[in-house]
């Protein structure tokens, strides 16, 4: 997989195209995840996709927090920041504001982003900062050796919940939609083509793009997604979301999503309810109500679960609006005086 995205000038002054490949986006660092970890597949999907996006390594920055997923910037031959626990969206916001020429990607796990980092995540989404946020969800704290996370199911027995978790878990897609994210999707590490298509769509989206990636932790939470991701289960357990198409699934498309008299979505048989009653997916619908209802069809990866793009709508970019305010202020008042600002208003001299 490669594409022409760069060029060099030879001795005669003519331009010679250079084809970028996966190797151009791979650093010289040895990957250090547990053998069999799903993070390898997600990283490979990214590295194989990037050459086809027409983006060059120096036009990318990967920013992470703390956790297993947060190692990814080390393995990308791009700009990268391994920041602090939960704060990657905040740091990435600063990068996006000051370097709008860069494509800014945020990498984190379910613990990193939805526990200590939840506040930063929802505000980056509601502001619509131009970030591509990938949350690797393995429903466990892997780096710190197996404590329950904000997405662990009720009753989960771990080192920190020896009698079973009593916490109601977050549904990451619902959280993102509730924060008014302009792009929200879910994919999984067992399907590289699906991951790459979702990542591509996120890259093309102008604004905050949130992607939940189901990722198996084969050491501390092995098989957490087998009910839906196992090859024999996918037809009847994964609900593909395709814009403009009826929401149906199964090897013969025999199952579908319908709406009852209370406007609630439910799963039923097409033969019983009829094709005309199927819900039609509209990822560009400005109101997030339908997308949110789809996100609530499954309360864990043990029943039929929607996979794909839930929402993709246009909203003003946070960076653009900030820059517009700055330019307007300079035009009206001239360059600001920081010292004067600090000493303005209710200030006191202490002697």
Care to give the gist of this entry?
With 351 residues, the chain is α/β, with parallel strands linked by helices. 28% of the residues lie in helices and 21% in strands. It has 12 helices and 13 strands.
Estimated structural class: alpha/beta
Question: How big is the Rg?
Answer: 23 Å
Mean pLDDT: 93
Q: At the fourth CATH level, what is the homologous superfamily of the domain at 3-224 and 316-333?
A: Thiamin diphosphate (ThDP)-binding fold, Pyr/PP domains
First CA to last CA: what distance? 69 Å
Shape: globular
Tally of separate helices:
12
- In the CATH scheme, the class of the domain at 3-224 and 316-333 would be Alpha Beta
* Contiguous runs where pLDDT drops below 50 for at least 5 residues: 1-5
Fraction of residues in helices?
Answer: 25-40%
Notes on the protein architecture:
This protein is α/β, with parallel strands linked by helices and 351 residues long. The protein has a domain at 3-224 and 316-333: Rossmann fold (3-Layer(aba) Sandwich), CATH 3.40.50. Helix content is 28%, strand content 21%. The protein has twelve helices and 13 strands. The protein has helices at 39-49, 88-98, 110-116, 118-127, 172-178, 192-204, 226-229, 234-237, 270-273, 289-295, 318-333, 338-342, and strands at residues 3-9, 15-20, 60-64, 79-82, 103-109, 131-137, 183-188, 209-214, 238-241, 248-249, 255-259, 265-269, 305-312. The strands form three sheets. An eight-stranded mixed β-sheet has the order 4-3-5-6-8-7-13-9, with helices on both faces. Strands 10-11-12 form a three-stranded antiparallel β-sheet. A two-stranded antiparallel ribbon has the order 1-2. Helix 1 (39-49) crosses helix 6 (192-204) and helix 3 (110-116) packs across helix 4. Mean pLDDT is 93; it is low at 1-5.
């Amino acid at each position: 997989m490669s594409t022409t995205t760069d060029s060099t000038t030879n001795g005669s002054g003519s331009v010679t195209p250079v084809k970028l490949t996966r190797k151009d986006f791979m650093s010289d660092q040895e990957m250090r995840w547990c053998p069999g970890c799903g993070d390898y597949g997600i990283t490979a999907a990214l590295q194989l996709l990037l050459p086809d996006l027409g983006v060059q390594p120096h036009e990318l920055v990967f920013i992470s927090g703390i956790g297993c997923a947060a190692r990814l910037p080390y393995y990308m031959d791009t700009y990268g920041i391994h920041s602090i626990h939960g704060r990657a969206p905040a740091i990435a916001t600063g990068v996006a504001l000051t370097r709008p020429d860069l494509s800014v990607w945020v990498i984190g796990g379910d613990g990193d982003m939805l526990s200590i980092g939840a506040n930063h995540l929802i505000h980056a989404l509601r502001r619509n900062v131009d970030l591509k946020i990938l949350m690797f969800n393995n429903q466990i704290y892997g780096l710190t050796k197996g404590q329950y996370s904000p997405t662990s199911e009720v009753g989960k027995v771990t080192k920190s919940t020896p009698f079973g978790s009593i916490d109601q878990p977050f549904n990451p897609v619902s959280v993102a939609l509730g924060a008014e994210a302009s792009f929200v999707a879910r994919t999984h590490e067992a399907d590289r083509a699906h991951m790459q298509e979702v990542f591509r769509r996120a890259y093309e989206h102008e604004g905050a793009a949130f992607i939940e990636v189901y990722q198996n932790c084969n050491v501390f939470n092995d098989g957490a997604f087998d009910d839906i991701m196992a090859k024999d289960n996918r037809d009847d357990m994964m609900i593909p979301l395709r814009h403009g198409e009826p929401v149906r699934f199964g090897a013969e498309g025999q199952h579908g999503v319908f709406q009852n008299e209370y406007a609630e979505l439910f799963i039923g048989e097409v033969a019983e309810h009829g094709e005309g009653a199927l819900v039609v997916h509209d990822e560009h619908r400005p109101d997030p109500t339908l997308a949110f209802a789809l996100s609530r069809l499954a309360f864990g990866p043990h029943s039929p679960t929607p996979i794909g793009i839930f929402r993709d709508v246009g909203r003003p970019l946070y960076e653009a609006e900030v820059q517009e305010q700055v330019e307007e202020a300079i035009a009206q008042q001239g360059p600001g005086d920081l010292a004067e600002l600090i000493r303005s208003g209710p200030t006191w001299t202490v002697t």
